[in-house]
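Worked example 2:
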Amino acid sequence: MKKFIYFLPRVLGIILGVYHLILFIGSFRFDFILTTFFALASTIFAWNKPKIGGIAFFGFWFFYTIKLGFVSKWNFTFMLKGEPFLVVFLIIGILFLIEGFRKK
């Protein structure tokens, strides 16, 4: 179970980065390449420093939720649900933080 919690956020981060890379190739939108770069760079950086990686993923979730909230109607359920990939950023951030505080 310990190894599962260790590898789960890393695998999810890589999958998220590859997913956005595929979206970028399909649409050539600049925000997809930034998301791809951020997801992969944060995953690589968080490999050894999970607390900082967790804060980075949580910060990106918060920033992107605020950005999307100005575009669409604001409500509390939007902040929790958001786009499906935003929930993945939140989960990855929480998993990295759990591991970082367990590691000490």
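Residues 2-103 form one domain. The chain has one domain: 2-103.
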